[in-house]
Amino acid sequence: MTTLYWGPHTCAIGIHVLLEEIGAPYDTVKLDAAGGETHKPPFIEINPKGKVPTIIRDDGTVLTEYGAIARWLATTFPDAGLLPDDREHEIRAMEMMDYTVGTVHGQGFARMFLPARFEPNDPVHATLGLGAGNVKQQGRTMVEQGFAILEKQLGTRDFAGGDRFGIADSALFYVERWAAEEGVDLPPQLAGHFSRMKLRPAVRRVMELWGEA
Ligand SMILES: N[C@@H](CCC(=O)N[C@@H](CS)C(=O)NCC(=O)O)C(=O)O
Asked: What residue owns the CA closest to ligand 1's atom 9?
């Protein structure tokens, strides 16, 4: 059975949604990611990157990185229809997912949530006022720019790959959720996408499990 390691407020919620959409049995292990538990034993021995989402598969192997996990789930459970049928639609959906995870999350939200990891620590930068506040603001700007790009790419489609939910939508969902928490306005198409996501039974179940229903 697949085991998902997750932590409150993390991007692992998107993978949890995919597991619920698939409907096959799975286990979960909750970690206090914000409190640093992902960097301590026993988890750090499972994933030396110290990050969630992390999954352990039936054969005991560990898989990390959002896009790899999502794609592994989609191809392992093809009946769930988590990849668009049309190849060009699939490629465009992957383009959106990679940008969401790598740039909007990895560059933008990471600066907003963990500014100290991006701050220059030398006194010269400190006296120039280039501290945490600046990094946070820079992150917010990057997130807003990223949403503007995703907004255009989503266009008038209901989901990233067309008219059917897929793995890229799970990634859009977790950054949309962070935007709502952080008071970042979503452009209209993404706001509509977020509303559609919140109506999905799988999303509702996960929100309940995460104590956010
Ligand atoms: N590149 C990773 C990023 C995962 C990531 O940033 N996870 C965050 C939570 S959203 C985490 O575990 N942070 C713990 C830490 O860095 O201390 C992926 O695609 O899965």
From this structure: 10
Q: What are phi and psi of 125, to 5 degrees?
A: -65, -40
Ligand 1 atom closest to 9 (CA): 10
Residue spans in the chain of domains classed CATH 1.20.1050.10: 87-200
> Cβ(34)–Cβ(114) under 8 Å?
no
Q: Which residues line ligand 1 (CB under 6 A)?
A: 10-11, 33, 38-39, 50-53, 65-66, 101
Does CATH place domain 87-200 in 1.10.10.10? no
Cα–Cα dist 201/154, whole Å = 22
- pTM for the model stands at 0.95
pLDDT in tens, 162-199: 999 999 999 999 999 999 999 999 999 999 999 999 99
Residue-wise pLDDT for 28-37, tens only, equals 999 999 999 9
